[in-house]
Design goal:
Elements lengths: L3 E6 L4 H16 L3 E6 L23 H8 L5 H10 L3 E5 H7 L11 E3 L1 H8 L5 E3 L1
Amino acid sequence: MSNKVAIIASNGGLFDAYKVFNIATAAAATEKEVTIFFTFEGLNLIHKQGMHHLETPVGKEFMREGLEKANIPEIPQLVEMAQELGVKFIACQMTMDMMGLTVADFVENIEVGGAVTFLEYAKDATPTLTF
């Protein structure tokens, strides 16, 4: 069985972020090699400003308060935790070009690459997850 976990983050809402970083940090904490490929709206999860303004689904706003009451870390803290645990971040070059974004728009220590970069990593990962 592979020691790699591959995650595609293509959605950029608050709940998507918690799913991505919960799985990534849990896997990394159990000594898995983890890479997340951020594409399309998923780039919001590592965008310096965007990560502070992730949308909550309509009618689910009460869950933000629940996250705070449960002392669950906010997304910027989860990003930091993931990186401290060695999770590798790949930002999609095509999406960045399409949106006019540069490396400076994102958190430190990311790699920029395309789908081929991610697929090369993911080819022997078990599991591969998409959020």
